[in-house]
């Protein structure tokens, strides 16, 4: 991205020419240049007339930082576990009656629990574990 912005700003090359030289798609080159110009306009609108172009380019090209390690642990409460088992038992009964297409999928079980105000975003994740424990 930094090379693209340097070619555009300092060398005055067009977006198509930059795309040809770098091998990056023309629309991607345009996206990078638009991001730069949008941020530049924001700085100018805020009254910063003497900002460093290189610092702006560096700020745009830094990789985003994600907070991956701070997610809460997934918890399966006994109450939700029982409800999942009930839905799986219903599925077993439907299979025995020859109604295999009417079985609930993990997402259907999640929606049913959500309707009962027992929300847990990872119910579809836990259904296979509960299913194997009951066998």
Automatic annotation (TrEMBL):
Domain Insertion element IS150 protein InsJ-like helix-turn-helix: where?
4-38
The region called Disordered is annotated at: 69-104
InterPro entries per record: Homeodomain-like_sf, InsJ-like_HTH
Q: Which domain of life is it from?
A: Bacteria
Bias (Basic and acidic residues): 76-96
What SUPFAM superfamilies does the entry give? Answer: Homeodomain-like
Name of the featured protein? Transposase-like protein
Q: Which organism is it from?
A: Caldalkalibacillus horti
